[in-house]
Amino acid sequence: MPSVLPDGEPMPEDGALPATALAGAERRPLGFYLHVPYCATRCGYCDFNTYTASELRGSGGVLASRDNYAEQVVEEVRLARKVLGDDPRAVETVFVGGGTPTLLAAADLGRMLGAIRDEFGLAEGAEVTTEANPESVDPRYLAELREVGFNRISFGMQSARQHVLKVLDRTHTPGRPEACVAEAREAGFDHVNLDLIYGTPGESDADWRASLEAALGAGPDHVSAYALIVEEGTQLARRIRRGEVPMTDDDVHADRYLIAEETLSAAGFAWYEVSNWATSPAGRCRHNELYWRGADWWGAGPGAHSHVGGVRWWNVKHPGAYAQALGEGRSPGAGRELLSAEERRVERILLELRLAEGCPLELLRPAGAAAAARALEDGLLEPEPYGRGQAVLTLRGRLLADAVVRDLVD
């Protein structure tokens, strides 16, 4: 979750949504994202809305403490119940992200989940995920997570090479994420993800292959692999600007992606989104699929984003300001935007084209349809789905996904 919030119109103090946002809500899936903004240390590449203890000291006081954070999220879940009114939907997915959610006690994460269960109910078979840093959990903690209702976990592995982890300022040691997968399986987690990053300065093809092999050897049923993006204002960006470490170019990123596709496919994983692979449909991250398909979700926590029925809003960034708003009975929303039909059409293309199922060609305007025909001729779209009215990226198309999307949205 990027730290910079967009511009938008003011959010009503009671968080009320226009009636148009709730129309037909019963036909759309509903999920919850719970943001935990705390980290033990700041990674050099991270631009997310997160805070270490030293960064919060003196800037939020007691309000920004981890000790009472769970109760603040519970209050926002109760606000969500008031705003959504008699919405009959049970929640289908819950995703706790950060930051490092597992810096909180498992009981605190359970209280946050319990509020969703009490206010909305969880659908049968609901997916309940938390992110975790490998150094922040142990077998007992993982068992406690299962006891309070979590059934999916995502570990930030990033790399199996110590020198790569050092550039990223990751604090875990190689081998610990793989051990975490085994501990999670022992605790009863059926679905386990490992997050990887490729293109870190100083990483070689051999390093990347070693990371993929180590991840596969651990036995997860889901792997996410993201190209490193160097965000302005981060420690890594400053190091690159000073010439301390080299910048990785796009050709290297493309080569690493091809290595990932080859290695993961050979191990029985199939891509279902450009940066995500799973061993089966059941292993996919259903919560992320809500985002990619434009469903409804409520994001609770500082800086969290939400979307319901074409209305998108975002919370104030700082944990102290977030706590103060809730303590005063106000919505923590900082701003919102009402998406037009055209904006929603464009977003569907942007997001659905990244999926293995693709996006309907009927979404395209004439210029976009002409671009799709050219992309087909250039080997960027699959012929068989195209004949059925779907734009589906080929492997080469995935490498050029951003450029293809730009053409298709006119």
UniProtKB/TrEMBL annotation:
SUPFAM superfamilies: Radical SAM enzymes. Transmembrane segments: none annotated. It holds the Pfam family Radical_SAM. Residues 24-270 form the Radical SAM core domain. Its main location: cytoplasm. PROSITE patterns: RADICAL_SAM. Keywords: 4Fe-4S, Chaperone, Cytoplasm, Heme, Iron, Iron-sulfur, Metal-binding, S-adenosyl-L-methionine. It comes from the Bacteria. Probably acts as a heme chaperone, transferring heme to an unknown acceptor. Binds one molecule of heme per monomer, possibly covalently. Binds 1 [4Fe-4S] cluster. The cluster is coordinated with 3 cysteines and an exchangeable S-adenosyl-L-methionine. Belongs to the anaerobic coproporphyrinogen-III oxidase family. HemW subfamily. This is Heme chaperone HemW.
